[in-house]
Structures are given as structure tokens and as C-alpha cells.
Amino acid sequence: MKEQLQKDFDNTIKNLTLSQKDIEIKKFYLDNFINKGFPNRREEDWKFTDLNQIIKKNIGELSFYSDYTSTNKVDTSAFVDGLEHNKIVFINGRIEKIDFDYEKKDQIEIIDQSETINKFNNNSSLSDLNSAFTNKSFKIVVREGYQLTKPLIIYHTTNSKIWSKNINLRLNFELYKNSSLRLIDLFRDTSEKNFLNIFYNFDLKENSILKNYKVDKFENKNIKYSFNNIEQDKNSISETFILSSGSNFCKNEINCNLNGEYSSAFVNGIFSLNNNKHHEIRTIINHLTENTKSYQLIKSVLEDSSRSVYQGKIFVNPKAQKTDGYQLSKAILLNKDSEFNAKPELEIYADDVKCSHGSASGSLNEDSIFYLMSRGLNYQQSRELLINGFLLDVVEKITDPEVKNLIKNMIGIKE
Amino acid sequence: MDNRQKEIDNLKDYKYGFTTDIEDTRAPKGLNEDVIKFISNIKKEPQWMLDFRLKAYERFKQLKEPDWQKPKYPKIDYQDLYYYSAPKSMKDKPKNLDELDPKLLETYKKLGIPLQEQKRLNGIAVDAVFDSVSVATTFREELTKQGIIFCPISEAIQNHSELVKKYLGSVIPVTDHFFATLNSAVFTDGSFAYIPEGVRCPMELSTYFRINASNTGQFERTLIVADKGSYVSYLEGCTAPMRDENQLHAANVELVALDDAEIKYSTVQNWYPGDKDGKGGIYNFVTKRGLCKGKNSKISWTQVETGSAITWKYPSCILKGDNSVGEFYSIAITNNHQKADTGTKMMHLGNNTKSKIISKGISAGHSDMTYRGLVDISSKAKNSNNYTQCDSLLMGNKCGAHTVPYIKNKNSESNIAHEATTSKISEEQLHYCQQRGLSAEEAVGLIVNGFCKEVLQQLPMEFAVEAQKLVGISLEGSVG
């Protein structure tokens, strides 16, 4: 893999206009990655999910260089109907379109950061890989007091032009005081056997609100990793919703630092898996100051020999008195080969806190099925109704009505 | 109330901190094959036992000391320890208690352990382990009548060789982790109990561990086998003198329960915890594992952990037999600079297996406490159930309480439920108690006792009283 990486790296920087110093920095990240390699189960954070093995088994040899000189055609029929929205379109990792048509031009700033190296607050080998190979990266700034009228949808599209490729994306968002942003990540893949490595950084200033919905619904054979780093100032709110379903393998990580008083973070997730899929959500919520709040709800429905993993951690700093933290993970195992693993972790150094977690897993409740069947539903209907209700609970947590409806329609959950 | 106050004052300092001035025989310092042969030789062990030890030592040389645990400690130099220390008077085994060194008798008297049978209390059979040897076992005759074997393991290796050979290392193999393997290589003494088929052991069996000599590590090994349909309740207590240096205690405890058998294992661990500034104290790195080998068997661990500078142990159950049950009840209290990383593992392998985990952690002062547990339901363990509850109580804002459960469910017909909470004593509860005339300290004591009740109830009577007192003492001075 080493020669491949070296060769692809040389090709990648050829197309960039970087100073000698920046190239050195990128080289440093590359060397880091070469040393560490893809994470494997020997690392505690990857205990349940051996990425190294998964890539080896499903993809084999990866190539890291993509030719971004030619444009791809944007297929407008793929856009979401019935909801006016702003767009960012990635096709095979190349940014094809950024448009904020519905917003005031002077309130949103798009800064091209491709020629600058920005450090990412995470020292995993995947962030090294990302830093070494990202070729275009943007920073999106929402000005003070501005609330976007329409949601922003980021289309992550891949098509059959790419094969066995590693794609690295990075976006930075900065939300100024009193601003708000609704962001939907929509994954739509017709390609197979690629590894997507996505890093987002969010900087939330006072009173700002971020709502991020990640929807990975369409069946595909890709491997995805996505990392959200969220920095929160006073009174800010972040809401993350993850629908983890389509890809063969997917790991979402959320690292949230509650730096300001009265800031709060919500993470809600659904795993709806079949076949051999293996998905994971890992969250780290750092309560770093007083009066902060976090809430997490993760539900899994597992069919065939699928596997879901939830690793959640609530960390409470000695200063963070009056913290309120909660985690709940529930799973329904529908097949004898399905598997649910959880590691809900509390690390607490302050005494005046209210922190708890719960986790439950098991089969569908036979009594409930009996109840429904005694009222005239057949087995299949009763089962669907129960699963529907089980998942609806999470979808109802979405605070934005427009997006809630969109997601409900997308995944076919009825009320 | 005055009496109680007096009692608490008496106990405020670690009352078991004295040393017994007694001549001892030691193995040469360090760890090598010769030391292992020396131990084996002095114990007059058969060849297979020596082979067992050497095999473990070979393995030990290849192993690396683990470092993933939360409480970190300075590196232990395993060549700088004495692996065998015994009172000189024990060289030729005394035939009965009259021949026992009076100094030893006095030590145990001071510790409140009655070795002389006429002074017996509530009928508990005690095996007293002093540094590396077992000094006395009481009530042997009465137990023999029922066919129960209860004796030091070194004796069992000679007299009940076949039994020991069959079960020793069957739950914790020589190829296990670092500290377990070290123990397999150098273990010196401990207790052995065998309960024959269909016998309900008429009294509590108990081992009392005492570390006396400095610069030694205590490596004892306990093996309890409950044959078909039998029942035994076993208690373990431990203390050590106050010393400035840290001492290592790496014991192995193996339990085997055959068809329909039940073993109840209770521990009140009160090793020297170090002084207020965290100097000295015992490193308690113990491996405890029970195997529910037969159908309908049951193993229940109850522990009250108040001592040790660092406690690092996970008493676990392997639920192999169908319908077997594993239970774990724990209270862990850390104060001053104590650290604990403890919990349990429940491995469900058989059908219809059940496990229950109740863990209560209390941290005060500058201490740090971690519950770490694993519940693993394998794909073959149909219709299994687990319930886990771990609650932590924080007193003061300089301590930490952590919960790290690992949950693995591979069977769709099995259920796992887990809940955990972390909080401090609520103002309302305190107010309510104080309003009714209790002082702040008494109120906290009452609330803490209530918090622990679920676990304390599981202890045998005499132990429960002692444990309840210990809970109060361990938290002395942490209120307000």
C-alpha cells in the first residue's frame, strides 16, 4: 500500500498550487498515515469494527488519486422534490455546484480553503489520510443574526465511473452569533467498493443553532466514514440525526465540545440494517462547563446477519457542574444471526450532575404481536406496525417539521 | 450513639495496620526458574505441579503487562519482589493449634479471627493465610464427617492430588492474562474446598488473608469445587499492615459448579488503602472466575471493596450449563487517593442462562472509580437474560466516577437490559433527614447505607454487619 500511497500523493499535489511549506505539512500527514495504516480492532475505538479488515475484504487494493480536472454532469432529476433548498453537489468527490439561491448573498460567505492547510482537531489515522489527500475544501460562514430561510442539502453522489477509490472530503462551517443552519447530507450512490472519508467541522458561536441530518438510505456497496466535530459556545444548540441504512459499512462519529454555558447537544440515530451490513455510531460529548445538556437516542432494527454498534461517551469535566447527560440505545434483533454491540460510557469528574444511560436489546415482544394479531392483523402486519412505532419515536425527535416530513416520506414511516 | 461514635473513632485509622514481628523464611529475591523450584520444593509438591508452574512461567516471560486500565501505577519491578515468605515456625507444620506460634495466634486474635475452636463464633470454618502459607484451618473434623474437604491448597495438592489436578487451571488456564499467569507460576498457598455430591455445607467456609512481610507479593490461589447438587457459601477477608511502599497482591480464585450446585462467594476486601496522600497501600490485581459447568448451577459473587490503593478485578461467570445463573453484587468505595477499576463479566454460553449485575460505586475525596463490565450473549445461548444496574454516587467535586459497560448480544431470542446512573446525594434527601434531627454526617451515612442495601442484603449475616460498619468508616471525613 505504501508505494501506492506515495505515487497517488505525488499525483494529487501536482494538481494543486501549494507552497513548499504546505506540501511539507501534507507530507507529514501522509507519513503519519503510512505509519499507522487503517484503524484495526486493536484500537479501543475500533474494537467492534475492524476497518482494516473490512477494506481488505470488501475492496482489496485502494487507489487514492482522483482526477478532478474534468467536470461531471449534474443530474437535476436526483434533487429532492417538494422542498425548496440550497445545494452543494459532490459527484465522485468533486464539488460541482454550490448554490445558495434562496438566501441573501451578503449573509453567507463561501471561502475556498483548498490552498491552505487547516489542522483538524483529531489525531486519528483517518484524519491524517484526509489531511493528506483532500484537494478542495470550503469554509461556509453564516453571518451574525442570519437564519437561512431554506435548508441546505449536500448531495453526496457517486457513480460507476469510480471503482476501488478513496475519496476524502472536508467542509468547515462557522455559525456566527444568533444564526442558524439546517443541513441535510444525502447520500446517493450507484458506485461500488469505494471508501469515503468525510470530515466536517462546525463552529457554533453564541445562540446559534445547527441541525444536521445525515441520510444514508440507498442500497450501495460502499464503505463510509464520517466525522463531525462540533464546537459549541454559550447557548448554542446542535441537533444531529443519523439514518444509517444504505451502505455496506458505515461509521459515523460525533465529537461535540460543549464549551459555553447552557449549550446543548442532541444526537438521535436509527440503524435499519439487513444483509451483511455493519454500521456504527460513536459519540463523544464533552461537557466542559456548567449547565450544559446532552441527549442521545439510538435505535436499531437488525435483520439477516447485520450488525450495529453504538459507542457513546459522556465526559464531564470537574468544572462542569449541573450537567445533564442522557444516553439510550435500544435494539431489536430479528434474525438469529444479527448482532448488537454497545458500549455506553460515562466518565464523570464533577459531583452535581445528573447522568444516566440505558441500553436494551432483544427480540420483538411476542405479547405485543399477540395483542395485534388478536385484533385481526396478520403476523407480518403486526411486526411492521411494531417496528414502525419503534423507529417513529426517533424520527419524532426531529425538531424541524419540514425536514421531519421529508425524512418520514423518504423512509416510508407512517404515523 | 456515644458507643457508636467511640467505635468509629477507634476505627478511624486503619486498625489492621500493625505488623507482627516474626521471623520469616523467604525465597531468594526475584523471579526465575530456581525460585519456582524452591517454592515447589518447600511445598513438597509432586512433579505435575512443578510442570504446571514452569509452563506458566514460560508463558509469563512472553506476556506484556497490560496498560489499558484506568488507574495507572508506577511500573512494578518483578525481579525486586520476594515470591515466598513464611513464618519460620511454620517450617515444620504444627500438628495442632497448641503448637502454633503464639505470635501468630495473637495476630489473628487482634484481627478478630478466632482460630481456637472453643472460642468459635457462629460456626464459621476459617482457613487463615499468613503471607505465603496457610497457618491454620479450623473445624476440619466436623467438615470431614460430611465428606467436605476444606484445607490449604498446598495440602490438597499432596493429599487430594487427583481432584486438584482435574480442576486446577480449568477455569483460569495457565495461558491466561499477565497477572493470572504470574500467579499460576508462583502461587504459594490458599484454600481448597470440595463439596461432595448432594451435600449442603453446614457452615460458612472462610479464608482470611494477611500480608505481613514487607517487599513481598502475595499470590494465593483458591479453588472451590461444588459437586452435583451441593451448596456452599464462602467468605473471604483481607488485611495488611500500613507500609509506605506499595505491595502487590495477585490472587487467582477458581470456582467450579457442577449440575444443580450453588456457590456463593463473598468478599470483604479491606487491604491497607494507603494514607491520606495516597502513599503506600496494596495493589489488588485479582483474577476471579467461576464456571457454571453443569445444568441449573449457580454462582453468585458478592463483594465489598473498601481497601487497596488500586483495585483492579472483574469477578466473572462463565455460564456454560443450560439454565445456569450468574450473579454479581458489588459495593466499591474509594476515598482519599484510592483507585478502583472493577466490575464483572458474564459470558452466556448455555441455553436459558440468566445473569444479574448490581453494582454500587461510591467515590469520595480525590479518588477515582470505574465500573467496567462485559455482558456477552453468544449466538448459541437461546432465551438468555441479563439485567445490569450500576449506580454511582459522587461525594465532592475532586473525585471521578466512570461507567464502561460492554454489551454484546448475538442472539435474537435473548434480552439484555442495562441501566446506569450517576449522581450525588440529593439535597432533598439530606434536608429531609436533617429536618428529623440527624446530623449531616448521620444523614449521609443513612442515605449511603440505603444506597448499598441491595448488595449488603446478599452478604451472610456476620459479614453484613461488618460491611455496614466498613462503609461508614471508609467515608469518614468525606462529608461537608
Main attributes of the structure:
heterodimer; A: 415 residues; alpha/beta; 10-stranded mixed sheet; 9-stranded mixed sheet; 7 helices; 19 strands; B: alpha/beta
Number of helices of chain A: 7
Number of structural domains of chain B: 1
Distance between the termini of chain A: 50 Å
The parts of chain B where pLDDT drops under 50 for at least 5 residues are: 117-122
**Helical proportion of chain B?**
10-25%
Strand portion of chain B = 25-35%
Q: What spatial order of strands do you see in the largest sheet of chain B?
A: 4-3-7-9-12-14-17-20-22-24
What is the oligomeric state here? heterodimer
Largest sheet of chain B: 10 strands, mixed
The main sheet of chain A orders its strands as 2-1-5-7-9-11-13-15-17-19
Rg on CA atoms of chain A, Å:
21 Å
Large-scale geometry of chain A:
globular
Number of strands of chain A: 19
Outline the secondary-structure elements.
The complex is a heterodimer of chains A (415) and B (480).
Chain A: H1 2-14, H2 20-36, H3 51-58, E1 86-91, E2 94-99, E3 108-112, H4 125-133, E4 138-142, E5 152-158, E6 166-175, E7 180-189, E8 192-204, E9 209-216, E10 221-232, E11 237-244, E12 249-258, E13 264-273, E14 278-287, E15 293-302, E16 307-316, E17 324-333, E18 339-348, E19 354-362, H5 366-374, H6 379-395, H7 401-411
Parallel strand pairs in A: 1-5, 4-6, 5-7, 6-8, 7-9, 8-10, 9-11, 10-12, 11-13, 12-14, 13-15, 14-16, 15-17, 16-18, 17-19
Antiparallel strand pairs in A: 1-2, 3-4
Chain B: H1 2-11, E1 24-26, H2 33-42, H3 47-62, E2 85-87, H4 102-110, E3 124-130, E4 133-137, H5 140-145, E5 149-152, H6 153-159, H7 161-167, H8 178-186, E6 191-195, E7 204-210, E8 221-226, E9 231-239, E10 246-249, E11 252-257, E12 262-269, E13 281-292, E14 298-305, E15 310-313, E16 316-319, E17 325-334, E18 339-342, E19 345-348, E20 354-364, E21 368-377, E22 385-395, E23 400-409, E24 415-424, H9 427-435, H10 440-456, H11 461-474
Parallel strand pairs in B: 3-7, 6-8, 7-9, 8-11, 9-12, 10-13, 11-13, 12-14, 13-15, 13-16, 14-17, 15-18, 16-19, 17-20, 18-21, 19-21, 20-22, 21-23, 22-24
Antiparallel strand pairs in B: 1-2, 3-4, 5-6
Helix pairs in contact in B: 2-3, 3-8, 6-7, 9-10, 10-11
